[in-house]
Amino acid sequence: MIPAAFEYHRPTDLQAALATLQEFGDEARVIAGGHSLVPMMKLRMATIGHLVDLRAIADLKGIRIDGAAVRIGAMVTQQELIADAALARAAPILRETALQIADPQVRAVGTIGGNVANGDPGNDMPALMQCLDASFSLVGPNGSRAVKAREFYEAAYVTAREDDEILVAIDFAAPGGGYAYEKQKRKIGDYATAAAAVTIRKDGTACSAASVAMTNLSDVPVWSKAAGDALVGSACGPADVGRAVAAALADIAPTADNRGPAEFKRHAAGVVIRRAIERAWSRA
Amino acid sequence: MAKMQLRLTVNGEAAELLVEPRELLVYVLRERLGLTGPHVGCDTSHCGACTVDMDGRSVKSCTVFAAQADGADVTTIEGLGAPGGLSVLQQAFREHHGLQCGFCTPGMITRAHRFLQENPNPSEEEVRFGMAGNLCRCTGYQNIVKAIMAAAAELNAVREAAE
Predict the structure, then answer these.
(1) What is the CATH number of domain A7-53?
(2) Residues of A with CB below 8 A from B60's CB?
(3) Is residue B4 less than 8 Å (CB to CB) from chain A?
(4) pTM, whole model, 2 decimals?
(5) Do B44 and A39 touch (CB under 8 A)?
């Protein structure tokens, strides 16, 4: 499969990349690892006149951890996330999630920025970023702005990012406490049939904070405030977890596709949410 | 659309050729440079038959544009060994019957080559996880895993002897 022809640009700094986006308008698009975009171009589901490769922009690389504050450059690959020992200490849920994405070759190239900015409901990092209440740092011709992950996703492949903006970094506070990313998939490399990201903090014997978000169970990632609220103050016993699962399921809208009918996805969601909460609690 | 001058290193040798940016790396390797080790299997980045080493990482060359590989250092199965001079991994695949039809084998071995540098002393489970991006329709993987474990042991013995 050969995609339609395009012009290739490899700017070495952000200003040059933004200038190229300005110059070519909606004919231009940035490419990070390309493991979502290249297949779409090969299938000719995406036709792009000017491809702006972000790989040579050093400012988009790197993971910085300052106390609880974590900043991850958009062009950090999944493999680099997995290999970063300081990140694994500060926020081990990143590593646990990244290890469940695709396969080694795809993780070697695929980036966290592409994963969150593409807007594919099947991507795993968006729900995790909503769980962590992360912010996405966007830079455009009029300067930079931050958008909360919980406000970024509007519909499948439609996000708050303007066409002339580039996602440069992701910021979040390391959550502390227990965590889990639980994913049901048909095979290695597949997108989730259902997946859930959970963080839980414990104070004495009670849950003092909880956050629950889900992947591929709607046309956008879903953060369920009600599910977290159902756990706070409880001892996360079976009835409490049941209430949280019910609350989370009330917030999703799965649709039938080749991973199964909507009711099956609802069932799978219930299982992964429960498992994620129980595992996060056991680690809290 | 303009062609571009592509410069890359392939199996240690400099290559320079005129390409359209949209050409895929696997076709540049196979059809322009005559390196038919990387195979086109699924053409959708699932099967791993097109796996090559690019700048020290395993990549699926059916999902990399030629333009993206400009300046890269690429190794294919042809760069790892040759008839009469098989690499340790190639020899292990032969001894342990890690192939039947052979279609997936160049990608398997190229990936295993990188995997054993990432993890020189893997458990069987780690081999399976590290090789999860390569599909084989013949062997059932059992002998592929055995071959990689055997190669790891031999490479480690050679390393220890050298120290």
Answers:
(1) 3.30.43.10
(2) 105-106
(3) yes
(4) 0.96
(5) yes
Determine whether A25 is exposed, middle or buried from the number of CB atoms within 10 Å of its CB (0-12, 13-18, 19+): exposed
**Top-tier CATH class for A178-283:** alpha beta
Domains of chain B: 4-79 (3.10.20.30), 88-162 (1.10.150.120)
Give per-residue pLDDT as tens, B6-55: 999 999 999 999 999 999 999 999 999 999 999 999 999 999 999 999 99
Q: Chain A residues with CB inside 8 Å of B22's CB?
A: 2-6, 41
Partner A contacted by B111 (CB < 8 A): yes
Residues of A in contact with B129 (CB under 8 A): 104
C-alpha A209/C-alpha A203 separation (Å) is: 9
Q: Which residue has the tokens 């399921």?
A: A249
Mean pLDDT value of segment A162-170: 97
| A266, A196 contact by CB (below 8 A) | no
Q: Which of A57, A105, A190 to mutate to test the interface with B (most CBs of B within 10 A)?
A: A105
Whether residues B130 and A104 touch (CB distance < 8 A) is answered with: yes
CATH number of A58-173, picked from 1.10.3210.10, 3.40.50.300, 3.30.450.40, 3.30.465.10 = 3.30.465.10
Q: Note the pLDDT tens digit of each residue in B96-113.
A: 999 999 999 999 999 999
Mutation test of the interface with chain A: which of B46, B47, B104, choosing the one with the most A Cβ atoms within 10 A?
A: B46
The single-letter code of the amino acid at A79 is Q
Question: What separation in angstroms does the CA of B154 have from each of A10, A195, B30, B146, B151?
Answer: 42, 40, 31, 12, 5
0.90 surpassed by complex ipTM: yes
